[in-house]
């Protein structure tokens, strides 16, 4: 494919997809090891009411208040889950189920109650985003990458997602040692003077930031898939945390690239006319990778347990 | 308008929806209880999201063979097949790999849902037309419900309830103590499978009314709410069924009474309201009960400390203690103890001495273990034992100058 076609139509969505996938997969590794994998699922559901409330308050679709609303909703959800779990002495899974379904239902109700027909805000969009529409119209070819005029009109999602990825990577890199210790042995981490509850909260908030930024660009389904599938597949490959994180980033990039290409060009190869949902395809590809890893990965069994028990 | 809706006076379709939703709510609440007690509540989330590819594939199949793609029974069969594939993947992942159940739930949920969305876009591009109903399965749509649809839902709900009644006891046993159940010779994995099968049935039946994203709420919220009120599993089951039924019925009626009130979310919010009431006001497990318990405890501690201080002639500065003593008439407003107060204080001090003897005597070890500073000694020892303790303490002694 020529640069004239690739750069404006596919380069930016592809990059946004990859950045979003990696930004979610990085904190996903720690959430997976801490048995909090479903936090990503809960966050991506509660983002909807946050965005709707932000829209109602500001009356416009603009990025900053919506991101704030979504992040606020994520924090509210985490606090609510914790409150219900402690006050009602309910197991965390059920508390999570109560909170995120209720908040999602509230979001859908608000959306139906308000007149949002004039703006692009609906449940389907929230679920599977519109990665395909994030095109870079001002580009004419590879040369545009050096052209400041064209670069000024990049889709805003691209720099935002890149920034989020940078922030998430920084958080993981700075807190690597304490995160690692507190993930594997929380009691030991506390005796060393690490504030494990604060650290856990910071990790969840980082995950929420990644989820909200990615949600804005690519929809919630990729967010859930990328929080869990690449780290889970990487867990089958490596016994080292370093290895696991490395593999998960690789798998995330692979799923995003492959998924995007398959969604965009797969139907054309099969003779169909239109592309299918890229977000859905990326999630599907990550599932295939997980399935292969779960079947053939060298570290797939629990250590000590024989295969098949 | 709302009264009309609650009394099923809003016409044929609204009545169908209300009855169907109520049956669904009851069976979801009852089924969800076992899932909740087994601590696997979120498995239902994976199952419900895994129905989407089946719905789409069934639609494509039926449409490509020239039929009406929207035949409800066909779509529900498709969803059941893909949900069981999802469930199988979930079980395989947790049993054969090192992944914990939550990770397996998340991966099945996201991958199946993602694949379903791919299929949805495929259907849109196929241009078979009349696919508009399919998005309704995401959030439920009761607008165009037909008599046959309602019958499918009603029969499905009733059959699920019947099955639960049949295997209720083994499911309860497995939910509470799987090891014991296995030792008794029960096929634990088969019972687990049956439990999941029932959850799947409820999910599939509920797709049309509340949609696949929100059906999870009906399976989780009523059991969690019911758990607050009782410690007995069969009452939890009954209460959860009742709460599920009530919230589904009121929710369906509410949504029929005004425009722009989608059925599924309203039902979920109704059941959350019931949950909130339970969380706050349930006896013994509720928040309010816990707060009251705390205050009662606090008052007892302050009362005891105050009485002991009075008996030993120490001044009391603590405000709450003073207020409590004054309210009971044990001290006057200026802090000097009344006769009644002196009598009670003397008794408190005497009981404290009795406890000291009891706690220093090996023979009273069991009784001494119950000492927490607040327990009345009469509730632990018999009159004879107390007399014996008093004999050891002896009568009043002269204070040496």
Strand content of chain A: under 5%
CATH topology of the largest domain in chain B: ABC transporter involved in vitamin B12 uptake, BtuC
- Distance between the terminal alpha carbons of chain B, to the nearest Å? 88 Å
Indicate the CATH class of the largest domain in chain B: Mainly Alpha
Q: What Rg of chain B do the Cα atoms give?
A: 31 Å
CATH superfamily of the largest domain in chain B: ABC transporter involved in vitamin B12 uptake, BtuC
Strand fraction of chain B equals under 5%
Order of helices and strands of chain A: HHHHHHHHHHHHH
| CATH superfamily label of the domain at 3-218 in chain A | ABC transporter involved in vitamin B12 uptake, BtuC
According to DSSP, the number of beta strands of chain A is: 0
Q: C-alpha Rg of chain A, in Å?
A: 20 Å
Which spans of chain A have pLDDT < 50 for at least 5 consecutive residues?
none
Helix fraction of chain B, binned, reads over 70%
- Determine the mean pLDDT of chain B: 86
Number of strands of chain B: 0
Largest sheet of chain B: none
**Sheet/helix structural class of chain A:** mainly alpha
Q: Structural class of the helices, strands and pairings of chain B?
A: mainly alpha
Counted by DSSP, the helix tally of chain B is 18
Could you list some keywords that capture this structure?
heterodimer, A: 309 residues, mainly alpha, ABC transporter involved in vitamin B12 uptake, BtuC, 13 helices, B: 401 residues, 2 domains, 18 helices, elongated, membrane (chain A)
